[in-house]
UniProtKB/TrEMBL annotation:
Belongs to the GMC oxidoreductase family. Residues 390-524 form the Glucose-methanol-choline oxidoreductase C-terminal domain. Gene3D superfamilies: FAD/NAD(P)-binding domain (3.50.50.60), Glucose Oxidase, domain 3 (3.30.560.10). It comes from the Bacteria. This is GMC family oxidoreductase N-terminal domain-containing protein.
Amino acid sequence: MTYDYIIAGAGAAGCILANRLSASGKHTVLLLEAGGKDSSLWFKIPVGFAKMYYNPTFNWMYYSQPQKQLNNREIYAPRGKVQGGSGSINAMIYVRGQAHDFDDWAANGNDGWGFKDVLPYFRKLENHPSGESEYHGGSGPISITPMKGETHPICDVFLKGCDELGYPQSDDFNGPKFEGSGIYDVNTKDGQRSSSSFAHLHPALSRPNLTVEHYALVDRVLFENERASGISVTQHGVVRTFQARKEVILCAGAVDTPKILQLSGVADQALLARHQIPLVKHLPAVGQNLQDHLCASYYYKANIPTLNDQLSSLFGQFKLGLKYLLTRKGALAMSVNQAGGFFRGNESQANPNLQLYFNPLSYQIPKNNKASLKPEPYSGFLLCFNPCRPTSRGHIEIQSNNPRDAALIDPNYLSTQKDIDEVIQGSRLMRKIMRAPALKSITVAEVLPGPAVESDEQMLQYFRENSGSIYHLCGSCAMGADVLKSVVDKRLKVHGLDGLRIVDASIFPNVTSGNTHAAVLMVAEKGADLILQDA
Ligand SMILES: Cc1cc2nc3c(=O)[nH]c(=O)nc-3n(C[C@H](O)[C@H](O)[C@H](O)COP(=O)(O)OP(=O)(O)OC[C@H]3O[C@@H](n4cnc5c(N)ncnc54)[C@H](O)[C@@H]3O)c2cc1C
């Protein structure tokens, strides 16, 4: 069968492309997704995040290679395996990043991707309750909800503590003032997840020129000489091929997009030779430049009730459930990451370089992936940090030429001195904030790492033993001008090939300073415009 556009991966980016490319009715579009539909109610209810965290039906549940700098631990890397992708299972925190994140993209040979260029796309994609303004959009498909005014009362204690220490406050991390403590926005509408699947794809499903195939694992891109001519998938055990009249667009995310390219013969020639894959194009940067945010939590026991108290009792759960059903508000309508912000680890930083989360509950992520996420059995809360712009770079590599084998993920965490220094800065910042009078007055004890962990070495060791991914893998098919160091050009076309683009988190030249979902949605909106301009 032949379509104008074939999109591989119905994730955060792929659903937007499917909508935008099929909207005019002029082009036929095929959207291929390895997972199933997002019909379960748990994708709608924000608290469903916990249900999907270790759910092998809807989550690829990848693990990294053992990380040398993290005590050789294999770090959990959940990825959505369902319509909507990771955008269907994520924590919905909506932060664009700092202006200089995108100015650095532009400086990497990507004119047209500086902050002033991408801001119109951020505005286009969102429906913000404050309406149209310099920084916000009021009529886009993705609904944004500020959690301000709805968060657990303990979040106000955090904000007061930061204020006591003289830190600035930000009313809106996506507005003119990024730096400071504040309350996060989430991408929800009336207490329900506003994913690109719900906001873009569902309303487009009745279009006759849009076809969606589920349980269709893309094995490889097919080429005629140096033009991508179609795609080969395995669906319910049967191999099927589809032809593309105009373009094949890879949207399988930062782990699977480079994997598909490598399986298709577009990668470093030595890697391809090792796996007996015929060479289509020697592109050594495919799979390189992998980045992520690495975080660690500090756990506290409080002398006032926290969300732990409500979530630990059946009556508390019942009350929260009833509130959600009746008003679509309350803890079940929100992310667990409610307060936080962006801070400078020391005075010499030109920009905020640490992101913080203050959660009104505390939970340990169970190591056993058959267990579920449960609050700690006391009134607790946690404070968590990650460096905003880590400089460690890792890679994605196929382990065989079998598309059913997961790729090897090596983020190479904490492999630069800058990243190590920022871990110390972040650890010291946590302790400083917790010494603020407001926070001291509600804290019984630091449960973890605990007061015995005091020196820089001990704090670093705690981080090495306990840190985890905050699930922002990106950069593995970076956009840039240098064909040895990047994979796509500024129009998102794969270097040296025709009819093949990448539109997902893998094209980030550098990770953004906040959570990555918003920037992926922007990339998809701008990518759709670029594709339609060339149609
Ligand atoms: C648990 C979790 C929590 C997160 N929390 C937040 C948050 O609060 N805020 C935030 O900003 N970001 C968050 N993120 C990150 C954010 O969701 C991702 O950055 C974003 O979804 C990436 O979008 P993408 O389109 O690149 O990939 P994805 O959304 O992952 O989509 C890729 C799609 O491709 C499909 N696919 C993969 N391989 C194939 C194949 N071979 N054939 C066919 N289909 C394939 C996948 O099944 C998936 O549907 C979180 C991520 C996770 C996993």
